[in-house]
Amino acid sequence: MKQNVTYILECSDKTLYTGWTNDMEKRLEAHNCGQGAKYTRGRTPVKLVYLEVHETKQEAMQREAGIKKLSRKEKEALIQQYQSQQKHGL
Questions:
Q1: What torsion, rounded to 10 degrees, do the Cα atoms 49, 78, 86, 65 define?
Q2: Which domains does the chain have, with CATH numbers?
Q3: Which of 31, 32, 76, 77 is most buried per CB count within 10 Å?
């Protein structure tokens, strides 16, 4: 099932990449095969560290833009909160 999602990847050099897609599995595969964003091509493998589901493509794109404006520290806090929730099944 396709969903509009905003996501953050951790690249092999520990940098973070934020994007959106409507097919996360296919997009993650593209990033790791060097066919994703230009930024991630030389930084594989990448690992999915954050994911948000949205009702519409527009919402996902707006959230992507908002996350990109956050500092590294703010992104790390977002990732930490998300992973904690995943770990506890929330």
A1: -60
A2: 4-87 (3.40.1440.10)
A3: 31
The model's pTM? 0.93
The string over 18-51, giving b where at least 16 C-beta atoms fall within 10 Å of a residue's C-beta and e elsewhere, is: bbbbeebeebbeebeeeebeeebeebbebeebbe
DSSP of 29-81 = HHHHTT-S-HHHHTS-S-EEEEEEEESSHHHHHHHHHHHHTS-HHHHHHHHHH
- For residue range 5-23, list pLDDT tens digits in order: 999 999 999 999 999 999 9
